[in-house]
Amino acid sequence: MKKLPLRKRLRKSYISSLLSGGGSAAVSLGVWRNPYVTAAGTATLVSHELGHVLVARAYNAQPMPPIFIPLGIVTLGATRIKGMPKNGKQRIGIYQAGPIAGLGTCLMLLIPLLNTPWLTLGLLFAASECYSLLLGSDAKRARKARSNG
Q1: Does 125 map to a domain?
Q2: Which of 34, 72, 87, 146 is the most buried (most CB within 10 A)?
């Protein structure tokens, strides 16, 4: 497989990070207007990172505590994991656990927003987690683990 030049890889990574951080951008937009939306977005982001940590621990990897990086209106989360399993299915489980946990949290927290104008921001959280699960960096790592066996 041909490797992209560094500039293109960085650009793709930055765009992917911004798209998957869309839910946290909505958090920042909701800060001044609706504290529930802010709390829901933060809970989604935290549960996403904790999903990676808990499944990594279940597979005897050594996850570091999650870090959260505020970048203007977007907050990104990251979890470093030492001693990733060699088994491809376990790696896929670790990669996919974050978006699944975040999406589950988001959907539970959307229920009180159903008949409000804030539903749009809540749906942005859900769309962000779906992007991460299907197309984002978590999905790319899972596909790579699947192809490496």
Answers
A1: yes
A2: 34
Residue 6 lies in a domain: no
Cβ atoms of 25 and 74 closer than 8 Å:
yes
Which range is least confidently modeled, 23-37, 76-90, 112-126, 132-146? 23-37
Is residue 107 situated within a structural domain? Answer: yes
Domain limits for position 52: 33-74+84-148
pLDDT in tens, 53-108: 999 999 999 999 888 887 766 677 888 889 888 888 888 889 889 888 988 888 88
Take residue 145 and report the two structure tokens written for it: 């683990």
Q: Name the token pair of 42.
A: 């933060």
Contacts 24+ apart (CB under 8 A), 82-90: 84/56, 85/59, 85/60, 85/61, 87/59, 88/145, 88/146, 88/148, 88/149, 90/59
**What distance in Å separates the CA atoms of residue 114 and residue 94, rounded to the nearest whole number?**
31
Q: Does a structural domain hold residue 21?
A: no
